[in-house]
Amino acid sequence: MTVTRRPTALIADDEPILRADLARQLAEAWPELDVVAQARNGREAVEQVELHHPDMCFLDVHMPGLSGVEAARRIGRAAHLVFVTAYDHYAVEAFAHGVLDYLVKPVEPARLAETVARLQERLASAAPAPNLDAMLHQLAQQLAQLPQRGGGAAPEPLRWIRAQVGRTVRLIPVDAIDYLRADTKYTLVAWRGDAGQPAEALIRTGLKELLVQLDAGHFAQVHRSVVVNLRAVSHVVRGDHETAELHLKGRKEVIPVSRSYAHLFRQM
To answer: Which residues contact 187 (CB under 8 A, 6 or more apart)?
Structure first.
């Protein structure tokens, strides 16, 4: 009796929650696929490829140490490559040639289904992985010109926030957030969920760390422990001693504005 070998894959991402989420989505989109290895960075990815010889690799572009693109250059034609990135503003241009597969975080099921279909077609044809060295070299040069964390030009504003709600990882669009509130070691994220209903979740990232990543044109700190999306504000009620209260659209919460930040709303 002939036994058909199941296709295999490696997932490399420095965020364990995102690795687990992609593995879960792949299990739903491609039940026959075995994720035989996971890696926290590019160096581990190269080592795991040499050890497990997966048919394909899902590589986060930005990883500490050896990036996903640098890892891909070392992996070469040993596996079919799929890049995962949060920066679609350059990914579309760099990967639109159709040779490099990519997924944009948060990964959408429809986009993942398209990628899975292409990979299945390539495996069925038994065609070897294409030689992408020249294109990967060009992509590495483009990445080197992007601002890096911790210095240089201002980074791209945060577009979404990951939050674990029970066993589910929610990928919350920043535009859907109403406010953020410091909660001891955590931050409470209040956003509009399904059908615009108010929802909340706790994340481990501190409020100060989030604040510097948000678009200052839309988000403002109104209290030492609260940051508000100005687009979510319905109206402002001024109080005594140069304080104020913010009323939010579709929410019962009233957000206090401390004296230090009351000047932001004097013209409202």
So the answer is: 180, 181, 202, 203, 204, 205, 206, 207, 210
